[in-house]
Amino acid sequence: MVVTTGNCSTTVGCSETFFHEKPSLAGSVVLLAIFAILIPIAFALGVRYQTSIFATTIITGLALEVLGYIGRLLLAVDDASTKTDFILFLVGTVLAPTIIALALFRLLPPIVATYGDNFQTWRPQWHNSVFYAFTAVCVVLQVAGAVLATVPTDPNTLDTGSRLLVAGLAIHLLSILLFVLLGLRFAFAVRQQKDILNASKLTVHKTRRFKTFLIGLTIAAFLLTIRAIYRIVPISQGFSSPVAQDEVSFLVLDGVMVLLAVVAALVSFPGRLLGTTLPSASIQERRFASRPERPYPTAPVQLQPTYAPTHYRQSIKSSKSYSPRNSPRKYNSPQQNMVDSEALW
């Protein structure tokens, strides 16, 4: 899995190159700088629109990309590169898109809630739990696979690490495809019931900002899908394969794809429409538009008695023959004068 040069019978003279040729120094520096610049931008947008969860997830993915390209930069400038640099590069560039994709996965339930319950094609209650589970499994498999595929010297252990790494990437790809499938089902449901949507008072879906948000989310998911497919191929063939050693394909199909996906997510920042975790203004607009106008229920009204009896009082203790039936006059109790205003409507 690792390209070695020199006499490896002793520690001296045996150097691990990891690449037939050194990684591109200029490409690594440019991507490292851009990913680092996007971190404060994502932080500022999160503070501005109070979307802490989305912004924190994106920032975590960007920080992992920065760590990954720091490791790649060390591999490019250091002749005696170490396994630590390669693990830093591998773990950072593998985990970062997984975390960034999680930020996109959480946006689908608020989008569905914005349109209304009539357009639900699945239960949004389990949406986040399923994708959290996918992400957790991906992270565990990718970290374990990256360590086992680089640190040990046993060939069997190296092969096991590569398989775990490929399995983690495959699950990551599966989660993106599931997300895309749910999005397509929802889009088809909206298109089928377009007349209902046009007849409603909801107007947020017609705004240019909301359409830009949906386009940005679609582009980001598409770019992450391309990157996941590409990354599976070189790792499955081995780090020393021609595909894995191709510097241009890695910078374009991995680094640039992730970079453009993050830019698309930040340009169409969801906090402008969806608020912190769920849509605020758009949800209220939908609820009031779909709720029929009816008077609010009021408290029961107590009617005043039509007369105030001042005579014919009889003590129960003073008369043994007293009976409610023999009472000269029946008084209406306060409970009988209670009228529920809800029944009046």
In terms of DSSP E residues, the strand content is under 5%
Low-pLDDT stretches? 1-15, 276-296, 315-319, 330-337, 339-345
Write down the domain tally.
Answer: 1
Q: Sheet with the most strands?
A: 2 strands, antiparallel
Tell me the strand order in the biggest sheet.
1-2
Specify the helix fraction band.
55-70%
Indicate the CATH topology: Rhopdopsin 7-helix transmembrane proteins
Total strand segments: 4
Structural class: mainly alpha
Subcellular location: Membrane
Keywords: Membrane, Transmembrane, Transmembrane helix
GO cellular component, one term: fungal-type vacuole
Biased composition (Polar residues): 310-339
3D structure, described in words:
- It is found in: Membrane.
- This protein is an all-alpha fold and 345 residues long.
- The chain has one domain: Rhopdopsin 7-helix transmembrane proteins (Up-down Bundle).
- The protein is 63% helix and 3% strand.
- The chain has twelve helices and four strands, in the order E-E-H-H-H-H-H-H-H-H-H-H-H-H-E-E.
- A two-stranded antiparallel sheet has the order 1-2. A two-stranded antiparallel sheet has the order 3-4.
- The N terminus and C terminus are likely disordered.
Short description:
The chain has 345 residues and is mainly α.
Topology overview:
Layout: E1 4-6, E2 14-16, H1 25-49, H2 52-77, H3 83-105, H4 108-115, H5 127-148, H6 155-192, H7 194-199, H8 208-237, H9 242-245, H10 247-267, H11 271-274, H12 281-290, E3 301-302, E4 338-339
Antiparallel strand pairs: 1-2, 3-4
